[in-house]
Amino acid sequence: MRKNIVAGNWKMNMDYEQGVSLFSEIVNMVKDEVRGNQEVVVCSPFIHLPALAKLSAPVANVAIGAQNIHQAESGAFTGEISASQVKSTGASYVILGHSERRAYFGETDELLAEKVDAALKHDLKPIFCIGETKEERESGSFFDIIKTQLSKGLFHLSPEAFKSVVLAYEPVWAIGTGLTASPEQAQEVHAFIRKTIAEKYGETIADDTTILYGGSANPSNAQSLFSQPDIDGGLIGGASLKSRDFLQIINVFNA
Q1: What is the mean pLDDT of residues 184-202?
Q2: pLDDT confidence tier of residue 174, bands split at 50, 70 and 90
Q3: Which of 161, 149, 78, 68 is nearest to 115 (CA)?
Q4: Per-residue pLDDT tens for 87-103?
Q5: What is the pTM of this model?
Q6: CA angle 132, 214, 149 (to 5 degrees)
Q7: Which of 248, 218, 223, 254 is nearest to 236 (CA)?
Q8: Are 93 and 69 in contact, with CB atoms under 8 Å apart?
Q9: What's 36's DSSP letter?
Q10: Contacts for 152 with CB less than 8 Å, ≥ 6 apart
Q11: Residue 254 binned pLDDT confidence (cut-offs 50, 70, 90)
């Protein structure tokens, strides 16, 4: 049975003290107010990871993650961070292939395949992002785009390795724009993703794969999105920076 996950992506926000304070609020709210089996993941800037790991340790259903890694084990890569370094902080997840990394930093499907391998080698669970731009949506090519991102980024993995991957569908046109895919649009793509996984790895693995929605989910639309049969939670941006908003989204699964 696949896991429900609500993951927060803080992006490049929060100084050290602000991040620790926000995460402390989230952890205490989860302990006091969340009764479901859903997992809560917070993906923070690198500076927060060790402190957040200590705060999350006593709470079984709260985990932390990084927002990126370098594909190499180590070396002369000034400003980068490796999978082993992230793992050493206590993190258990890493976001890979976010649309901002693809668009602003030129990350390709081939590079992301290397990053996936690096993450899995060090027992980090990738939250692997896929999705189409506004132009690709309007041209009708978005299914082809998503299938290519899956195939080139992940389908080199063995079935056993693939089981450690969490997917996040993020319609790029709905990130930071105020637009959101309708529940029906999101479900259509999530179902296609699951079907594509089944064609590669079989129905059992496809049915067990957690697929998150990552396009401007918030407290007002999370219920309608998460109620769709193939949407297993969300990768939350702006709303994850407000503890009460984030908790409302987490608690959709208890409604």
Answers
A1: 97
A2: confident
A3: 68
A4: 999 999 999 999 999 99
A5: 0.96
A6: 40
A7: 218
A8: no
A9: S
A10: 109, 110, 112, 113
A11: confident
Q: Give the C-alpha separation, 117 to 213, whole Å.
A: 23
Token pair 């692997």 is at which residue?
Answer: 128
Q: Which helix (H) or strand (E) holds 214?
A: none
Cα–Cα distance, 10 to 45 (Å, whole number): 7
Closest CA to 60 of 86, 34, 87: 34
pLDDT of residue 203: 98
Q: pLDDT tens, 105-161?
A: 999 999 999 999 999 999 999 999 999 988 888 898 999 999 999 999 999 999 999
User: 150 is written with which tokens?
Assistant: 């899956």
| Residue at 52: amino acid letter | L
> Beta strand 125-130 with 62-66: parallel, antiparallel or unpaired?
unpaired
Report the DSSP pairing between strands 93-96 and 39-43.
unpaired
Cα–Cα distance, 135 to 119 (Å, whole number): 31
CA angle 96, 97, 102 (to 5 degrees): 140
- If you search the block for the tokens 């980068």, which residue do you land on? 80
Distance CA 255, CA 34 (A): 11
In residues, how long is the chain? 255
Task: List pLDDT tens digits, range 1-43.
Answer: 899 999 999 999 999 999 999 999 999 999 999 988 899 999 9
Per-residue tokens: 69: 């890694």
Q: How many CB atoms are closer than 10 A to CB 186?
A: 26
- 235's CB contacts (< 8 A; 6+ apart) are 7, 9, 95, 127, 129, 168, 170, 212, 213, 214, 217
Active-site positions?
98, 170
